[in-house]
Automatic annotation (TrEMBL):
SUPFAM superfamilies linked: PLP-dependent transferases
Protein name: Unannotated protein
InterPro entries with a match to the protein in the record: Aminotransferase_I/II_large, HistidinolP_aminotransfase, PyrdxlP-dep_Trfase, PyrdxlP-dep_Trfase_small
One GO MF term attached to the UniProt entry: pyridoxal phosphate binding
UniProt KW keywords: Aminotransferase, Pyridoxal phosphate, Transferase
Aminotransferase class I/classII large domain location: 1-122
Amino acid sequence: MGFCIAHEAVADALRKVQIPFGVSSIAQAAGVASLDPVVEAEAFARCELLVGERNRVLAGLRTAGFAPSESEANFIWLRLGERTADFAVACEAVGLAVRPFVGEGVRVSIGLPEANDRFLATAVTWLGSRA
């Protein structure tokens, strides 16, 4: 999120290539609010929690025998190939939503510790049932 102060001709050129509806007014308000030191501290604390949880989930998956890709995002990628749909069904059966890309793998969003614990338990059980 950002803004531009420019000569009118430059601003007109930028408008021609900008993404329509790139940042909503709600997102802009959130961005402005995040400049408040208290809100900023909360945002950093949430980021730290997310990074810690992502690292914990990655380590748990590796320990179980999966080979997740490295991640710097709020999600991880599990390459499962032809087993992708089966894994997604197993997750759905216990109320977990993953984003399957059939024949390739699943994208798993990192959530709160309790949800991540449920995901890890489901993944370990699923992998064990395939052994």
